[in-house]
Amino acid sequence: MSVDIQSQSLCIGIVGTGAMGRGIAQIAAQAGIRVLLFDALHGAAANARETVLGTLAKLAEKGKISTEALNAASAKLDVVRRLEDLATAHVVIEAIVENLDVKKALFQQLEDIVAAECILATNTSSLSVTSIAAACKRPERVGGFHFFNPVPLMKIVEVIDGLLTAPWVAEALLALGRRMGHTAVAARDTPGFIVNHAGRGFGTEALRVLGEGIADFWEIDRVMREAAGFRMGPFELLDLTGLDVSQPVMESIYHQYYEEPRYRPSPLAAQRMVGGLLGRKTGRGFYRYANGVVEAMPVAPVPSARAASVWVSQSHPEWADIVRDIATAAGIEVETDYMPSGNALCIVTPLGADATTACVQQGLDAQRSVAIDCLFGFKAEKSARRTVMSTPLTTAAMRDAAHSLFAADGTPVSMIRDSAGFIAQRIVACIVNIGCDIAQQRVASPADIDRAVSLGLGYPKGPLAFGDLLGARNILAILEAMQDFYGDPRYRPSPWLKRRALLGVSLLTEES
Ligand code: NAI
Predict the structure, then answer these.
(1) Which atom of ligand 1 approaches the CA of 103 most closely?
(2) Which pLDDT score, from 0 to 100, does residue 440 have?
(3) Measured in angstroms, how far is the CA atom of residue 441 from the centroid of ligand 1?
(4) Closest residue (by CA) to atom 3 of ligand 1?
């Protein structure tokens, strides 16, 4: 069995012409594929065709596509009135309501209509492809074809192999995704597939940081944007997506993995959802929005306090040198003795540990100690943000002195309460760890995991390359310190990460 995906006469049917069906129709037509649009709601498919034609016309107006391309794509779109009119389709893509029973019923109906070699694909984001296929007489021709919204801009599609999907079906869908101009990645049928699974670390860990009272949500966003390089902070993202969408996804993946602690959602988000603080769409989420404009959040002024002298821990000598350079540049005396004098501001540079643990382990006075995150926003250019945390006993005077010291060269500083793993270390370590476990579970190849996450979530790097950039051993050290501190299996390192860190090889390394 096979379908000639490159054929000039390739014809696909799209069932369900909401945002997703329309987007898929647009990129298919632009790729020269005949598209038959069907929707159960009277007039919806015709409206969808008009909308796609309008979008294509705008692209032509802006010079993004030629008039010939506009005409060619427009000629490829047809509306059909009955499901039976999809009989000639080589592939049918379902993008209807996200309901297992409704989808199963549709696939059973389609089986009686389409040709024996026609592929039946579902765009589901959260249902099991295997369970949809299992309702069919010929489950081997059913596969997942998971696009992201808005389809023409999100240039990634996950091709999901159900347990019963035949290899030729996944191969054909991969080729179809590529013909439509998208990066197509192969994934096994598992909860969240690649992208929605990999996305569990960012929001849930940020919510834990917030839940522990370590920093305000806007400060967490600033750190993740300006120190860790994310386009949006986790709370900005939650507000954009809407808690009505993201909270059920967090809960669904957590339960589908039988309460895996790595994906544990937060009661904070559940409560806000119930309270209707959904995000931009309701004018108030974590932030408030007036006419779509987000409220400005407070920035703590840089205090004028100065430390008499500073003493820097030697636990990471290369980082200690940089901290000393910053202090020297700020005109503050740097102590070089083995232990600090009685007046010195003591600075520790932990990896994964909190300020208290680092300070106690090194026999320092907690009242005079602070910790600086040296993995994120530290060495980089001026625009990077530094994160400094205090112990529960650090005096206000010492905290102010640390703030002014690290802000002296104009770098923004986030002053936070004590946290194993600061903010960025712990959130990024969770992202890398989950990415590693997706690889360990053989959901997808390491390269496809990174490709899917970079394109699907817009992270600065895929989780495995991000881990490599920061050092797999550093990520392992952060997770082990956090697991030690919290005693929570949420932070247990994935075997994939652990072995590659121990072997000193890239996290993208597959087994030979
Ligand atoms: P939507 O609600 O905007 O559109 C669904 C369309 O399907 C409607 O026009 C409706 O009339 C039609 N429909 C419902 N039941 C039908 C049936 N039995 N037969 C024919 N047509 C039927 O939904 P949207 O957002 O376009 O999503 C569609 C699918 O894509 C869902 O399975 C969803 O999980 C998946 N998806 C959605 C994403 C999103 O961000 N919206 C992202 C990735 C996947």
Answers:
(1) 18
(2) 98
(3) 29
(4) 18
Neighbours of 113 (CB within 10 A): 17
Residue 78, strand partner residues: 36
> How many angstroms separate the alpha carbon of residue 124 from the centre of ligand 1?
9
For ligand 1, atom 29, which residue shows the shortest CA distance? 95
Rounded to whole angstroms, how far apart are CA atoms 120 and 11?
13
What pLDDT sits at residue 292? 85
Distance 22 CA to ligand 1 centre (A): 10
Per-residue pLDDT, 2: 83
- Report the DSSP pairing between strands 386-390 and 413-416: parallel
**Residues 213-227: tens digit of each pLDDT:** 999 999 999 999 999
Q: Which residues are catalytic?
A: 125, 146, 158, 196
Distance 385 CA to ligand 1 centre (A): 41
Strand ranges, E, within 279-377: 289-290, 293-294, 309-312, 333-335, 345-348, 369-372
pLDDT reported for residue 382: 55
Pocket residue to mutate for ligand 1, from 97, 125, 195, 237, most atoms within 8 A of Cβ: 97
Distances (CA, A) of 467 to 194, 237, 474: 17, 22, 8
> Do residues 407 and 415 touch, judged by C-beta distance below 8 A?
no
Q: Which residues line ligand 1 (CB under 6 A)?
A: 15-21, 39-41, 44, 95-98, 102, 106, 123-125, 147-149
pLDDT (tens digit per residue) in 273-330: 999 999 999 999 999 999 889 999 999 999 999 999 999 999 999 999 999 999 999 9
pTM for the full predicted model: 0.96
Q: Please report the pLDDT score of residue 383 as a whole number.
A: 58
DSSP assignment of 260-274 equals -GGG---HHHHHHHH
- Which parts of the chain register pLDDT below 50? none
